């Protein structure tokens, strides 16, 4: 059931609740939060039993990678954000699974909408959160009361949705190969189900991110610009006022941009946050997201590391939040 508009507005004006380095990553339509040891929730048996998202239909494996079952070391003993429960490092064993090589693109999502007639939650609510940088200077004053208090660069704007990522005057026509954004966990789940797929578990996602490397920061290793290259779409410059766009992009990048990791997966770090099927701690209404986004920078939101994690409520939408799908290897 959707929140009343009055209640929703109250939440927006009192939103953001989190860590000593609060970047707005956990921007939610709702704001309750509980904490507990959740290590058991990384086990595949738990996720198989409790997921809202399990499907077992046949699916098209084109542009998917088969990741062979194995035991890998998940998490870290050197957490950057302890309140995100990034640690401890522990061995997790997974069965084989498939994962999309790319984040779901605007074209992929448009095809789904055209075939299914699905209406996203941002469209239903009539608004979504977008980055202040993309609001025309002459319009910013009118949104002064619609900013997240502890992350004022996030603004709730009417008419923002997956088709209009920066408002009604914007379009995805020139960005069909960019990742779809302003999709909630519920929207992502519906897309995956339509394809006969599902969202990856957090453990699956992290195993895929690491690409067979053990306890490296990033999908490609420990050095951010290894071999003097850009390997991910993140923030360069001083956040949130100046982005030098050294990696080529201020906002999203194409889903096949940069070099893939050793599992041939693209953009597992940066670009857009990716939903997983796991619940955050003991709250089934909050879901784990992984990977960071084009807005992440080490100085304030170093969450484009494989071990990093964050969360949003299932109905949350924003201009840096997308997904990719997984499937069981039967």
From TrEMBL:
Organism superkingdom: Eukaryota
Any one GO CC term of the record: endoplasmic reticulum
Start and end residues of each Sulfatase-modifying factor enzyme-like domain: 62-326
GO molecular function: formylglycine-generating oxidase activity
Gene3D superfamilies: paralog of FGE (formylglycine-generating enzyme)
InterPro entries membership: CTDL_fold (IPR016187), Sulfatase_Mod_Factor_Kinase (IPR051043), SUMF_dom (IPR005532), SUMF_sf (IPR042095)
Family that this chain belongs to: Belongs to the sulfatase-modifying factor family.
PANTHER family linked: FORMYLGLYCINE-GENERATING ENZYME (PTHR23150:SF19), SULFATASE MODIFYING FACTOR 1, 2 (PTHR23150)
Protein name in UniProt: Sulfatase-modifying factor enzyme-like domain-containing protein
Species for this entry: Aquatica leii
Lineage: Eukaryota, Metazoa, Ecdysozoa, Arthropoda, Hexapoda
């Amino acid at each position: 059931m959707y929140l009343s508009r009055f209640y929703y507005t109250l939440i927006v004006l009192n939103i953001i609740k989190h860590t000593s380095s609060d970047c707005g990553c956990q921007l939610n339509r709702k704001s309750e939060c509980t904490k507990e040891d959740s290590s058991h929730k990384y086990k595949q048996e738990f996720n198989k039993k409790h997921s809202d998202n399990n499907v077992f239909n046949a699916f098209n494996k084109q542009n998917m990678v088969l990741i062979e079952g194995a035991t890998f070391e998940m998490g870290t003993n050197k957490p950057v954000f302890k309140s995100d429960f990034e640690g401890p490092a522990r061995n997790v064993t997974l069965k084989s699974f498939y994962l999309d090589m790319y984040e779901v693109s605007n074209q992929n999502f448009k095809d789904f909408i055209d075939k299914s007639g699905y209406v996203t939650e941002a469209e239903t609510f009539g608004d979504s959160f977008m980055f202040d940088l993309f609001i025309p200077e002459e319009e910013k004053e009118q949104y002064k009361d619609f900013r997240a208090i502890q992350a004022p660069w996030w603004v709730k704007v009417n008419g923002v949705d997956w088709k209009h990522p920066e408002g009604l005057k914007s379009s995805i026509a020139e960005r069909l190969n960019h990742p779809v954004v302003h999709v909630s966990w519920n929207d992502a789940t519906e897309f995956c189900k339509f394809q006969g797929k599902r969202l990856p578990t957090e453990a699956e996602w992290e195993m895929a991110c690491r690409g067979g490397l053990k306890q490296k920061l990033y999908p490609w290793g420990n050095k951010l610009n290894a071999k003097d290259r850009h390997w991910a779409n993140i923030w360069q410059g001083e956040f949130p006022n100046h982005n030098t766009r050294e990696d080529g992009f201020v906002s999203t990048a194409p889903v096949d941009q940069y070099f893939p990791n050793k599992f041939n997966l693209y953009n597992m770090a940066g670009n857009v946050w990716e939903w997983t099927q796991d619940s955050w701690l003991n709250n089934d209404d909050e879901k784990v997201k992984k990977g960071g986004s084009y807005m992440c920078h080490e100085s304030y939101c170093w969450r484009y590391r494989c071990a990093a994690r964050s969360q949003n409520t299932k109905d949350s939408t924003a201009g840096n939040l997308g997904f990719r799908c997984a499937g069981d290897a039967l």
